[in-house]
Amino acid sequence: MSVNTKSPMHPSLQFLILSTITVGCMLLGAIIGMGFITVLYGANALTEAVTFNSAAPHFANTIWIFQILSTTIPLFLAPVIFARLIVSEPREYLKSTKVYPAVLFLLVFAIMMFSSPLIDFLGTINQKMALPGFLKSVEQWMREKEDLAAKQTQVLLQMKTIGSMLFNVLEIGLLTAIAEEFLFRGCIQTIFTRWTNSIHWGIWITAILFSAFHMQFFGFLPRFMLGILFGYFVAYSGSIWTSVMAHFINNGTAVLVTYLYQHSTIKSDPDNIHYNYIIHIFSLIFTVLLFFVYQYCVKQKNCQDINGKELG
User: Fold this and answer.
1) 247: closest CA among 160, 119, 150?
2) Alpha-carbon distances, residue 240 vs 15, 25, 176, 290 (angstroms)
3) 95 occurs within a structural domain
4) What is the pTM of this model?
5) Alpha carbons 251 and 39: distance in angstroms, whole number
6) How many domains does the chain fold into?
7) pLDDT tens-digit readout, 38-84
8) Could you tell me the sign of the dihedral formed by the alpha carbons of 236, 242, 247, 253, in that order?
9) E strands within 158-310?
10) Domain around 93
11) Does 190 map to a domain?
12) Residue 174 falls within a domain, yes or no?
């Protein structure tokens, strides 16, 4: 399949420039965040955040400021700057203007629900990962990173009121979904699709980078699988909003279930829910079947990919 592009810039250079813009935006956001924290809470708050002193006053607020200013906003700005100012193809790289049938919303929701046990299965396998003896120091470092990420998530997901829960749904659910999908399924997936001349390679490479970006090695496989799902949602529909919705469902559901558990509305710990193999098999079967339905609906509505070619 021939992949056309308006931009004369090679995809490898595009990826390098996009990566540079992203890192630059994140560094600038971190500097601004440190300034805000110093003004609001004093210089000691920075030290307490770096040393992860969760008992310190305003600790949760400092973590949120860093999260929003050094991650969420930069991950949104970088792809927008790249698509509009560098390659001047916002429609092709952001995919935010494509009109798609409303039934895809329902199918995305169903796929995300039915794929949950499959994602859990991959997570269980990933947690059992063990490196060879000569790499034990690497494994220890990976687990330390994983534990630190878990502690940070625990701080961010402390929700005492409905208002704090709604804020988390907005930030962790919606805004994070928009920012990450614009960057990964928008720009990066388009770059690698054009670089490899293959939609499928573009999706899988992007899914690997998406999972690796989070630096949670023992959650790599489930996040990789989510990246594949998000990637095909966009590739088949041509619209970024299908993957944004899927990403929002995944993150928002986690926030909501955690809130309900914290307030004893539900008894099952969301971090310790596991399924048996029969449910895992049915999850795989129904996820695949629903994807065929999704693909069929796209064909019926004559949705096209970013290069004007029908997907099938």
Assistant:
1) 119
2) 19, 22, 14, 19
3) yes
4) 0.90
5) 31
6) 1
7) 999 988 888 888 788 878 888 889 999 999 999 999 999 999 999 99
8) negative
9) none
10) 11-300
11) yes
12) yes
